[in-house]
Amino acid sequence: MKWIVLKKPLDYDGSQISSLWGYMEADLQEDSIIAFRGSCDVQLRHMIDLEDRKEGDPIYSTDMLHFIIEHFDSTDLKLIYARQRLFTAMVAEVLLQRGISTSRAGDDLFVQGKKLSISIASTSSVSQKIHFGMNVEHGIYGCLKDQGFDEKDLFTVMEKIASRYVDEIHDIEKDLRKSRPLGVM
Is residue 181 part of a domain? Predict the structure, then answer.
C-alpha cells in the first residue's frame, strides 16, 4: 500500500470515490491513500449514502482535508466499513497528539459537540473505497482552524495520517503471515 499527499488543491465532488481514481489521478495501481486539500461540494447525483440523498441536502464545505482510500483485496462492504472506522479512530488519535480532543460516533468525528468530518465507504466490482473529509474552516460545523490549528501544519498532519494508516495496514498484513490457522499444529 502506498500513500501520497497532493500539493495542488483539488476540490472533492464525490466523483473521486469511483474505482481506479487513484490510477487516473496519481498513477497508483495498488492499495493507496491519497490526501489533498480543497473544497467539498457533493451534489445528489454523487451521493452514495442513501440517507443523505433522501434528505436532499448537498454536502458542502469551502475548505477540507480529504483522504481517498482504495483497497483491491476485497469487495466486502462490511470489511471496508471496519477499515473506515479504524481510519476515523486513527485520525482522532493523530489530532489528540496535536492537542485537539474529539469524540467519535461511528465514522464521524466531533469537536466541542460540532461535527468535524464526513465520510463514506463503498465497494465496486474491483475495489473498496473510503472518502474521509475534515473541515479546515467552516462557519457552522467544527473545524481545525477554530481549534487553533496552524495553517503550516496541514500538510504535515495529512502525511502523518496517511502514513500511519499505511503502516497499520502493513502491520496487519505482517500479522496475517505469522499466525497459524486454528486446529493446525
Answer: no
